[in-house]
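User: I'm curious whether this sequence folds into something compact or stays loose and floppy. Could you predict its structure so I can see for myself?
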Amino acid sequence: MPPREWNAVSYDRMSAPQEAMGREVLDRLDLQGDERVLDAGCGTGRVTALLVEKLPHGEVLAVDGSQAMVDQTQQRLGDAVHAFAADLADLELDAPVDAILSTATFHWIADHDRLFARLHAALKPGGKLVAQCGGAGNAADVEAAIARVGHPAIGEWTPWNFATPADTARRLEAAGFTGVWTWLQEWPVAPEDPHEYFGTVILGSHLERIPEDERDGFVAAVVAEMAEPMAIRYVRLNLLARR
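Assistant: Here's the prediction. I'll summarize afterward.
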């Protein structure tokens, strides 16, 4: 299934938690300032903008599966970035990069073996992968709330691939990466507007399966099933590796 088209305007408004996570991941990427770096899953460019600041003499490529996200990134950063739409599982670059940064993206991709093979091919020898995504146990409280609501169009289907550190390390090494480190990190999130946050950031793929006149009610029902005070139990999977 190809990547879905996002509501980029709403995501940009709601994605402060993802930017905060991304800032911490970016701090792990040691840069001299003249490298060619790919932001793999750029979203609306909030983290990409921080990456641009670290590369005053470098080049930033930004890719996302959603054209609306890419358009928002290009609008935000203009000529400071080369942004394009592509499925990361089919990624091909005209020339390899020195490093790949990715935040809040890999858990939307079903085939991590294929993903890591494409990322490995996109890096120069010695190039670095620094990434974070949802890991094993991520948003388990949300998944339980979805199950309790029990919409027939959803059933047991999920759009997410929340992998374990051990499985991820094995897949990275099988793809040819070395110096692999993977670990989980808890990061609770209390959204300012739970209904919009769930409808855009969390449940967007679910809503595509639900009749349009039932979508708002489904979001409201899932939000109502969450414990109060609201604190979504994010568990982030961190990845460090080198080609």
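Summary: The radius of gyration is 18 Å. The CA atoms of residues 34 and 58 lie 4 Å apart.
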